[in-house]
Amino acid sequence: MGIIVRQGIFNAMFSYVGAAIGFVLTLIIYPQILTTEQYGLTRVLLSISILAVQFATLGTRSSMVKYFPYFKESKDESTFTLFFSFTHLLGYAVIIAVFYVFKDALLGYFIEESPLLSSYFDLLLPLIFFNLFFTFFTSYARVYHSTVVPSFINDIVLRVLIIALLYSYFFGWIDFQLFIYLFVGLYGIVMLALGMYLIVALRPKISFSSILPNLKIRGDIIRYSMYAFLGGITTVIIGRIDIIMLSSLTGLSDTGIYSIAFYIGAVIAIPVRALDKISFPIISDAFKSNNMEEVQTIYRKSSINQLIAGSLLYIGVCANLHNLMNILPPEYQGGEWVVVIIGFAYLFDMATGVNGAILISSMYYRYDLYINLALVIAAVTLNVLLIPMYGIIGAAIATTASIFSYNTFKYLFIRIKLGMSPFGKETLQLVVLAGSILALNFLFEPMQSLFADLILRSVIMALVFGIGVYTLKLSEDANRVINKFLNKLN
Hints:
By secondary structure, this protein is mainly α. It contains 21 helices and no strands. The model has no long low-confidence stretch (mean pLDDT 82). The chain folds into 2 domains: 2-423, no CATH class; 424-490, no CATH class. It has helices at 2-33, 36-56, 60-73, 77-101, 103-110, 115-119, 124-143, 148-170, 176-202, 215-249, 252-266, 270-288, 292-319, 321-327, 336-351, 355-361, 365-390, 392-418, 425-441, 450-472, 476-489.
């Protein structure tokens, strides 16, 4: 638990700083410099690459975390490093083969509504490679509980480099074609930076005398990876299918508008990313030692603490939605309901805690696949039906329905099979508190000054919410943080 707290603090700090940079980048810099179509192109390239990366990992991201303790106990960490390196290379080779065999069919899917994408389609291969091995290096760091530097590189360094690149295009130093090439190249830079850090910090010992693990553990890894692979694919499909399908059904311009609104709504999920980076290996170790009490503690604390942080952010976003929309250029308007709908979906996701890490670390990990497969079918079907009828709102509804179903099924399964629940009376108290404060916001008329209204409204909401959380003692961790802050003030 001490590791979770220490690394979680740094991860959260970098996540929030990165989110602040990303918020400015997404809300101000991107819309002022790129057209909706150009911005949509960057989102589709990233979404396709992330989906391809999930295929290329062959399910080994979860296997690395789950089985590292066994390699560590047998002092066979060199085999661990080489085996999982080669599986990622094998996965990338499969992606290359699929890319060239089905290239014409893939281009035909986008050519009518998103012709700009076809001009840069070949950039997907290097982008997939860069993201694949950044993912591998991040997973490698996680098993050694070294998550701070990957967070810093991904959340801060990458965004700062993108801002510099955008202004290079804005001032006319490069054209858009070179911008896209360099945009992809930035992902190669951060991949190399993280790889060099791991070599220096962890000093992995490599011995080619043993590349494959012993037969028993190898069989376990293959079986587990198969389920994790299919389960991971479905998770990414649920999270990315809306952007990919929007680009093919309505075009890159709608994709750009939706992506901006989606990002604003998804900002509340920042605490989830901070906690997930370190909680999975700890939960995996707890299951290995059959320490169910620790798993339940992490489950309950992750739920209430994430919900507190997420509720504060959701209140802030919804209360200032009129201000945020006024910051954007006219062509980016129309995404208000996307923000509200997507934000509510991620708030529910946070309320269910680290249910995914618990399920996939338990003996019931196979059921994660069955849940995900059913939801992928539902997500694709909903997007196909709703996007043509309601456009970006339809995509938001489809994604929200998928997130709600996904987490509800996992919660019920863990409750029935493991007897664990993330909810308590504090959860209901928090929901009532957050809803009351959000309703209070509508009593205040907007001020003439956009930024004065944004700041004053945010401060009032945060103070009332903080006082409520502290007074009701909803979380020991939250009260401890507030008490430390008050002591420093004294």
